[in-house]
């Protein structure tokens, strides 16, 4: 007997098959009416336990021996608020496995429920799995990995399924080097052709990307994309977790598998020991599909907008000035801040954020953070007078915190109980002269709640930049089955703490930062309002980061630094300012030292950005010159709307004077084209071919330069 389960929305169809003698699997997922069936052989739910392992033996997070023994029990579809639909698919371990045959487990014990949620529109879904050990079982069961979603890939009407058919895109992520995309055939990305098709077997190997430590995106982005090389049909995914995660691509006898997971034993020393009746729920993941990469990214962008926490900032998108980057660099004083406040207000900033250093009487403050008491010497009239000046100039005050980390020389390190910090084998964990608060503990949470509430009450703080500059190893094993399990519980407590701030202070804006974008994951971005995209201090290196950022976050969340400086040419000034125009504008630099033309250019960039904000918060990104732009002489980012498209072009020093920009979505359209920033700089020659869907650009200056261009369909 076969049970066919269908769910979706007007754009998207998902079909699951549950057969009597096989684990439930995905039959179809993609644009409605334009998606081929997916081959059998890959269970939707993948579980690896300590008592059953893999079959065959491998280090994959698929091929879980228990996974193949799960059988359909029931399913339920229900309508959620906002037009979302949820499918719950219940399965049970229905056949004896190695643990039962060997006598380690009495009876059939594991139940697993897959939950798929689908938005009211768009080709995307979210998925998680809850594993429960039967209440009447007599023994514990140890989970070593549980994928949040596993599927065979079948992209496009032709139903491409083999690794030879696919191109893979993944991104390295490092301090000052975020979003470094690599695009290559899947075969040359590590899934080599081993001739397995001749024997109708799958590979033991796999291509794996995983996080390391407490920086969720400190090595790679928790997202990726794959497409049918022949017709471009694409899928893109994200793992929505602020701690350990992993995704695998592998070759099965039937095709190419993709598995998305939170922490695992192999990668993060994570296990979950389930006593009878206990459950574990995976981190959520999302996957989106489209006729090409732009369409898949648009579907993911739509899913993000529908799934983030509502907040006034989501619509207002105020311009931020922050005193740190290439400016005060953690050394604020009243004397230094006043001219910056006035210059930021003149430029049109709406938030003024005092960054690091405000809590220390000297420059050597790294090991003293954690108490968050204003310096007694930096602000002769009191720190409140500085914030009063910010408000007097029509801006809202913000402040920098690194809340989760406590310097070993701080008062908090000595007064909070040891259980309020990360531990390893009952010893406090120290990394880079810092302890790490454990927000599962009430004393740790109260300490931070008191800090935030005091700063809001005493100084009227309206914006917190929340930084995180230490990768604290694998986590904490205090009160946890494993160090990875302790980190997972902490990660969930951290998100809950952030939500608590906004519950108490709904008008406060939270910026997520982790030495730039070392923790730029959707678990945090779904609750915070914007994300620092990098700590990169060189404008010519920042452009590629800004161009790539909207792949892994919303365009309106991508807080790109723009830091004009007095020693920059006008073209370089425009280059760094253009980085902020399309995205979330985050100004820095000694604006008070700019000459009149640079100041005018800065104010122009802010004005243009403000005019574009309604468009930015509804647009979807695309990359006309490709995702992997870091070493390219020309770099491009486009935002698409219903009737207009915006394009930022960055030209690196020494780049050719001409470039061709393909814009296939505008094929055949007659366009009005204008350069909207900088309007006073020498114009570039822009020639549109509707038949070829290509914009030919001729630049007028070999120096570092950038332009923002608008296309309106007539």
Description of the molecule:
The chain is of the alpha+beta class and 714 residues long. The chain folds into three domains: 2-307, alpha-galactosidase from lactobacil brevis (Beta-galactosidase, Chain A, domain 5), CATH 2.70.98.60; 312-532, TIM Barrel; 622-713, Sandwich (Immunoglobulin-like), CATH 2.60.40. It has 14 helices and 39 strands. The strands form eight sheets. Strands 5, 6, 7, 8, 10, 11, 13, 14, 18 and 19 form a ten-stranded antiparallel beta sheet that branches. It has an eight-stranded parallel β-barrel with strand order 20-21-22-27-28-29-30-31, surrounded by four helices. Strands 4, 9, 12, 15, 16 and 17 form a six-stranded antiparallel beta sheet that branches. Helix 13 links the parallel strand 30 and strand 31 (584-587). Helix 6 runs parallel beside helix 7 and helix 13 (570-581) packs parallel to helix 14. The longest helix is centred in the last third of the chain and has 22 residues, at 483-504. The protein is globular and about 80 Å long. GO terms for molecular function: alpha-galactosidase activity. It holds the Pfam family Melibiase. One of its GO terms (biological process) is carbohydrate catabolic process. Keywords: Glycosidase, Hydrolase. InterPro entries: Aldolase_TIM, Alpga-gal_N_sf, Alpha-glycosidase_related, GH, Glyco_hydro_36.
